[in-house]
Every structure is written in C-alpha cells, then in structure tokens.
Specification:
By secondary structure, this protein is mainly β. The protein has no helices and 40 strands. Strand 25 and strand 26 form a beta hairpin. This is Multiple epidermal growth factor-like domains protein 11.
Length: about 300
C-alpha cells in the first residue's frame, strides 16, 4: 500500500494511516488547523484576542492591525496605529487617532481630517455640534462653550451688565471717579473736559486741554493754558488771545493794564513798568496802575 501522508506526517506502515505533525490535520495531513486551533492534531486552542489568528504550528498570535502584545490584547500606544503598530498618527491639537485605522478622533472644539480646524463661530464641543449661547459680543470658547465676556458684562451667558460703580472684565474693578467723572461699565472713569488719570483727579498736562487732553494749547510767552477751554492767561507784558502781542508803549504788567509814568523819553519795561532812563537822567520811577476791578488809578515808587 502506498503511503499518502503529507507535510512530513508519519505514516503507519501497517494500515497507512497518517500521524500529522503540529499544525496539520486531515486524513492525509494536508489541511492546516482551523481558525482558533493549533498544535498536534490541532488539539490546542489559541489564546489570541480581538479576532486574531494564531500560528497553527506554535500557537503564536499574529496580531491584526491596531493590536499588540503576546495575546494581541493591547491596543497600539498613543500616536501609532495599523499593522504591527508601525504607522504614526498625524492628528493635531492634542487629538488621538484610532489605533486600528488611524482616523483622527478630534478633541472637543476641533474638526477636520487631522483635527486642524477650530469650530466655526457660534459652535463648540465634540464635532462642533453644540451651539454657543453667549451674548453681548462675548467670545465662546470652542472647546467648552464657556463665555468670555467683554468688559462691562458678567453672568453665565454675559447677559448681565456691571452693577453701578463697578466695571471691567467680569465687573471685577471698582470706580473711584473724581471731579464729576462718570463710571463707564466697560472702561471705568470717563473724565470731563480738562481732567485725566485713572480717577480723573489730575488736570491736563501742561500745553494740553479739552476732552481726554487731546488738544494742544496755542499760548505763547509762558502764558498759562486753561485745561478746560484752552484759553490763555498771559504773563505780564503780553496780551491777545495767544499772548503773542507785547503791551502797547506806555502800558505794562498783567493784562497790560499798568500805565507807565516814565519821563524824559525814558522807555517802560512791558513786564514790570520799570523805566529805562535815557542818557543824562536818573531818579526814582513812579508808575501808575489801574485797578481792573473798579478801573481806578493809583501810583507807587519802583525805586
């Protein structure tokens, strides 16, 4: 009788029956062990998990894509996927990929094949499926839906204006406004004309005036500029709206109301009325001054 055993099976010389080697079965040992079995006469069961087949000869698990470990019960580590976990994930913004297919599973607030896009305005959450409920121009955080209020507003949806006397981000600051300034719920103290500073307790810096001190003074010759209307208060010896014109001959002092009393062609200082004597003359100098309140005149000696 001819022996028909295959795959190195041992043939019984008496009856021609076959004794299969590990991993084979069948009358003539021409079949490999069925799925889930291995070893001599396929008598042993595979211990592999997740639908993984085992080697019919030694029982070693042959992991399917996405799995690793002796029994293929461990998913690929974070950042890898596929057969033998040999492929790298390319997901963005902290998102993870499926350990089997490599498809990106986006974190809340992101969409796109690689999770590279932030949720469109007005949406948030997983797959950007939730609608924002923020009010008054507040920004909706794409990941949590949290409303980041504009200055001057508070509340879960930024629907509540700041209480009187408070202002700023989530109404966390208190107003301390001076000089009749008003408290704006967004910006704080809004100064009246001529004032500046966080509490509006300072007048405009020198040479500026008006609302928010944005106007430049036009005064000349050391004149004082009003921080409220920009008007010029001339120093002694000058006049006009810009204080750029000296006192007329014979007059001096503040507002040019002092009247000189110089003699013998002496000139009068427009600032203080002192007489500059011409050559050949000297002596005390008397000046006449007009009281601006009652327009009366009086005189006094300068030296």
């Amino acid at each position: 009788m001819k022996c028909l055993c295959q795959n190195r099976a041992e043939c019984n010389l008496t009856d021609g029956s076959c004794k299969c080697t590990s991993g084979y079965t069948g009358k003539i040992c021409n079949e490999t062990c069925p799925f889930g079995r291995w070893g001599q006469n396929c008598s042993r069961y595979c211990s592999c998990r997740n639908g993984t087949a085992c080697n019919a000869f030694n029982g070693t698990c042959i992991c399917t894509a996405g799995w690793t470990g002796i029994r293929c019960d461990v998913p690929c580590s974070k950042g890898s996927h596929g057969e033998n976990c040999g492929k790298r994930c390319d997901c963005m913004n902290g998102s993870h990929c499926d350990h089997i297919t490599g498809a990106c599973n986006c974190e809340d607030g992101y969409i796109g094949e690689r999770c590279e896009e932030i949720c469109p305005d007005g949406t948030w959450g997983k797959n950007c499926s939730a609608n924002c409920t923020c009010q008054n121009g507040a920004k909706c955080l794409h990941s949590t839906g949290y409303c980041d209020c504009f200055s001057g507003w508070k509340g879960h949806h930024c629907e509540i204006p700041c209480d009187n006397g408070t202002y700023g981000y989530f109404c966390s600051k208190k107003c301390d406004c001076k000089n009749n300034a008003t408290c704006d719920k967004a910006e704080g103290c809004v100064c009246r004309i001529g004032y500046t500073g966080p509490s509006c307790n300072d007048t405009c810096p020198k040479e500026t005036w008006g609302l928010k001190c944005t106007n430049l003074c036009s005064c000349e010759n050391d004149a004082e500029c009003s921080p409220f209307n920009g008007s010029c208060t001339c120093s002694a010896g000058w006049k006009s709206d810009r204080c750029h014109i000296p006192c007329e001959p014979g007059f001096y002092g503040k507002y040019c109301v002092g009247k000189c009393d110089c003699q013998n062609d002496a000139s009068c200082e427009p600032k203080d009325g002192i007489c500059n004597c011409t050559e050949g003359y000297f002596g005390k100098t008397y000046v006449i001054f007009q009281n601006p309140e009652d327009l009366s005149w009086y005189s006094f000696s300068l030296r």
